[in-house]
Design brief:
The chain is of the alpha+beta class and 613 residues long. The chain folds into 3 domains: 238 residues, Metallo-beta-lactamase, Chain A (4-Layer Sandwich), CATH 3.60.15.10; 203 residues, 4-Layer Sandwich (Metallo-beta-lactamase, Chain A), CATH 3.60.15.10; 101 residues, Sandwich (Immunoglobulin-like). It has 12 helices and 36 strands. A 7-stranded mixed beta sheet has the order 1-2-3-4-5-6-7. A hairpin with a 4-residue loop joins β3 and β4. α3 packs antiparallel against α4 and α4 runs antiparallel to α5.
Length: 613
Amino acid sequence: MNYALHLMFFATFATWAETPKIRVSVKAIQGINAVCLSNQSTANNVAVYHSNNPDGDRTHLLLTHNRRELMPSSKSNIFAPYSETKKYWLNMAKKRFHYYAQQPTKVLVEPLEVKRWVKDGDLLKAAGMKFQVMATPGYTRESVSYLAVVDGKRCAFTGDLIYGDGKIFDLYSFQDAIPEAKVGGYHGYGARLADLVSSLQKIKAWKPDVIYPARGPLINDPAQAINKLIGRVQALYRNYLSTNALHWYFKEDRMRICGERVLGKGAKIDLMPYCLHLDTPDWIIQFSTSRIIVADNGHGFLLDCGGKNQFETAKDLVERGVVKQIDGIFLTHTHDDHSQMVQAAAEYFKCPVYTTTEYKDVVENPGRYLMPGLTENAVPNVEGMKDGETMKWHEYKFTFRYFPGQMIYHGALLVERPKAKPVFFIGDSFAPSGIDDYCLLNRNLVHPDAGYPLCFKIIRQLPKDTWLINQHVPHVFRFSDKELTYLETQYAKRTKILSELFPWDDPNYGIDERWSTFYPYGNIMKPGETREVEVRVINHSPIKRTFKVTPRDHRGAKVLSGPASATLASRGEGAVKVKIQAPKEPGVYVITADIDSKDMHFRDWVETIIEVK
């Protein structure tokens, strides 16, 4: 992205309005376009997106949406769409466990004092100018755009609706529920892309001459950029549906409802036919999202234990003698419908719990992470197995694999039994209709050696005629070579679409909200306690990058260390230490940090929650 060249023009752009007394200027501040419309005769200003004007009472600030990185650093008369943030962090301290709403956490740390909440159809008059408010949801649920005629030009201030020449800032912000298809937020991949398409069409119909976005270069050919973006998101969603595991779970009618929202009524929607699936072998006991492998001597090995019913079923099987005893538990991944009762089961059966090393820490310390569906029930002393490590259990051979399919913290277990077809327990990563990548917050990376590309390679390396088991599917199944090739080809096409959709030098920044994150994410601290935390960063880029981390205080929660940097090789991971001190007053506090690198500026981008007790 040649953003520097765009920015040189963008930051110096100025024009004069119908009377030569309105001046429009743009200055990029930490990645946000601070647009200022100055009335030269009255010294009153209208700012859009961001204002650093120290004479704040003379500035009217128009906010298109309520993301914290857009927040003003001076007092202004703020106009914004309504959004409830007052109790967000108090609730989030607890709701981050079993979290399935799947909305980004770039929420205001403190509520703003808003002069006026705006809505679709409002007409604002400020500093001698008129602005029409148009509801343009998409990037956020409540987003609006402001439309005005300046110097005879039709100007649209559209927030994060569109970036540059037909791009968007990220995709994970579009995750949401689809009520008409009975699809919840967790399963709503890119759900608000439907709103995005509708909002873009509304903006295009208004026929703007220029779009001032919240970030990125000025858009001087709005119609072309809008058409390009609509084409890209529709191609993306069509591709997503073509390999979608939800076709198995939710069936064709509901998937067509999802598709027509983005692609249009009557649009052609391709869904992968179900692959071969048969009854589960009798040496595997299946119940809900758990399975028990049974040895010839009656001993059992439990895979996952997600709820009370699963736990009680496993106990009952042992008590009735169907299974002699449980020798061990393998946890396929960290979602609570597989992990909630693992610790209770391990204590009851007095057996070890196994994972691969890649997600051992998440299982032992779930409160240190923010991911969908985490349980608060930590499992101590997990046996972390290396990827590819084998173990003999009675007549069986187990091979433990890191298998980042449905989510990044995911494993799989290859089970080989004499005179039987091998079985590969894959958690929730595939179904007979495709792949389980419906939740962007699960972090499905698209690097060739990560995420589903890695899973495809592992499946191709399996012993001949290996069956797959997804514990939500009451069958064993397998893909033919043709079907697997189709999945690989479609996923490669999607990666190309994503590369064109975002302004970054690697598409993973646009799908991986946690490429930078505080660790621990949650902290329970005593009044006045000091602690060292980390801001962890993944360099997804194909080049070496230096990332500067600038932490920010919150009320009485103090940052005792200054900005620091980490230089990371391509695909490297690193961390910056941050020393924090808890306030003396009990409560919930949030410390944030800016992340900056060349052509990448993210204000208040990551957060850590402090609960003072």
